[in-house]
């Protein structure tokens, strides 16, 4: 029977909980697998993916989870019996004297009778606290200080506000409260100086200057083991100080032979600009520009020379960084063939129109005329001339200048009407306003009818 029971227990599989517990890593194994073992906690081994969790915890600028997440008791339960201090005004507000004024007003109200208190409640008086507004303005806009706040990633825990802030503290600086607590008389050393002279300076602060150990003692103090004495400085067999200049006899750097002199000149100051150097550099640059191109191995081979006759020189500037001679800022619109031909040559700013003599005609006629036939054959490109192509209702009439001289006003109007009729037939060239005119006419007639009806009703009433 016993053998059967043993066989049953052997065949019985392990539960999933026991399997997870057997496959779980220990804290020591997990610390060996990660880069930063100091972030490993005893609860990290039970995570679904411990390596990923520790990678996130050790990542830069990661804010840790508050430590009370796994605590059994409630958060801040230990602060129940601690008395909460009363609220105090910030120092920059208390300096205005408003707190003393309020205390005086409250003391006066406490001494008032019940009848006066009731009268004050029904008819309160204003302006009890008379404070200088300039002083109040300076308190908030000049002397206001930033309240103490926690830094990035700094978590709060119970009793943190009662701890001493060590950011402003420096090793070796004794506060007046500490001097009073240790009962150190004036010009007396701290009680741990004798032990430091015997065992050496603290290894955690190798650059710390300690009077009586590696720096001179203050003026008026004496060496010795009497009350108020600074003991005996540590010396070697040749009576030389072990840890530094205790007696203050060694020359400082820059005063004597020992040590290199300190250069106190400003290293970031700009050098003064000299006109002579600029002129020389300009002359050199001009000479460099005038120099001909080198011949050996730099000029292009025969048959590949540039058409302008200038020898091409290998540029030392990287490709795509050369400054172009001409920049085209206008849009690449389709140009006429004449413009394409003219773009190759030099552009002229204007064109001279030849003058010719004519007979005086009309009241305001002129005896001088201009031959514009040359200009009409080759139109001058005008800036923004392509805007006329977008206008749908415009009528273009092209008339030769010679025909315009003998043409009367009626002939000109007739030609304009003919061109306007042609543009009307083009779909989309002119808008149709007939529907709008008919609608406005209908509205106007309707309003006139209503006005006449109202006038008749008024006359009937009278």
TrEMBL record:
Residue spans crossing the bilayer: none
Domain of life, source organism: Eukaryota
One GO term describing the cellular component: nucleus
Pfam family, one: PSP
Record's protein name: PSP proline-rich domain-containing protein
Span of domain PSP proline-rich: 166-219
Region annotation (Disordered) ranges: 1-22, 266-309, 329-348, 403-436
Bias (Acidic residues): 268-291
Coiled-coil positions: none
């Amino acid at each position: 029977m016993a053998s059967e029971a043993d066989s049953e227990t052997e065949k019985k599989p392990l539960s999933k909980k026991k399997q997870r517990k057997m496959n779980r890593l220990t804290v020591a194994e997990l610390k060996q697998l990660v880069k930063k073992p100091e972030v490993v906690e005893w609860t990290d081994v039970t995570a679904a993916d411990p390596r990923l969790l520790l990678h996130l915890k050790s990542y830069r600028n990661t804010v840790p989870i508050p430590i009370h997440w796994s605590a059994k008791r409630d958060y801040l339960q230990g602060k129940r019996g601690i008395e909460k201090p009363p609220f105090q005004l910030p120092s920059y507000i208390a300096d205005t004297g408003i707190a003393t004024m309020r205390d005086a007003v409250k003391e006066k109200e406490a001494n008032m009778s019940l009848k006066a208190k009731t009268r004050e409640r029904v008819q309160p008086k204003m302006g009890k606290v008379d404070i200088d507004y300039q002083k109040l303005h300076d308190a908030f806009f000049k002397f206001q200080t930033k309240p103490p706040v926690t830094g990035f990633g700094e978590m709060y825990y119970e009793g943190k506000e009662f701890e001493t802030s060590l950011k402003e503290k420096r090793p070796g600086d004794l506060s007046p409260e500490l001097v009073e607590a240790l009962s150190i008389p004036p010009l007396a050393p701290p009680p741990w100086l004798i032990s430091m002279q015997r065992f050496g300076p603290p290894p955690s602060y190798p650059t710390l200057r300690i009077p009586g150990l590696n720096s001179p003692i203050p003026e008026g103090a004496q060496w010795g083991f009497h009350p108020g004495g600074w003991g005996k400085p540590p010396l070697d067999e040749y009576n030389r100080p072990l840890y530094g200049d205790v007696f203050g006899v060694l020359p400082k750097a820059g005063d004597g032979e020992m040590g290199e002199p300190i250069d106190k000149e400003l290293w970031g100051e700009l050098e003064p600009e000299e006109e002579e150097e600029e002129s020389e550099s300009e002359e050199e640059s001009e000479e460099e520009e005038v120099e001909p191109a080198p011949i050996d191995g730099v000029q292009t081979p025969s048959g590949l020379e540039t058409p302008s006759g200038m020898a091409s020189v290998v540029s030392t500037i990287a490709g795509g960084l050369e400054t172009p001679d001409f920049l085209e800022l206008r849009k690449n619109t389709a140009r006429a063939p004449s413009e394409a031909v003219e773009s190759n040559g030099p552009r002229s700013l204007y064109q001279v129109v030849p003058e010719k003599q004519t007979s005086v005609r009309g009241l305001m006629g002129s005896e001088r005329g201009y031959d514009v036939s040359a200009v009409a054959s080759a139109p001058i490109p005008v800036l923004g001339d392509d805007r006329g192509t977008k206008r749908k209702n415009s009528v273009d009439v092209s008339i030769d200048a010679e025909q315009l001289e003998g043409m009367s006003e009626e002939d000109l109007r007739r030609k304009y009407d003919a061109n306007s009729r042609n543009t009307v037939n083009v779909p989309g060239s002119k808008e149709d306003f007939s529907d709008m005119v008919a609608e406005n006419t209908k509205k106007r007639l309707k309003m006139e009818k209503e006005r006449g009806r109202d006038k008749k009703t008024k006359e009937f009433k009278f």
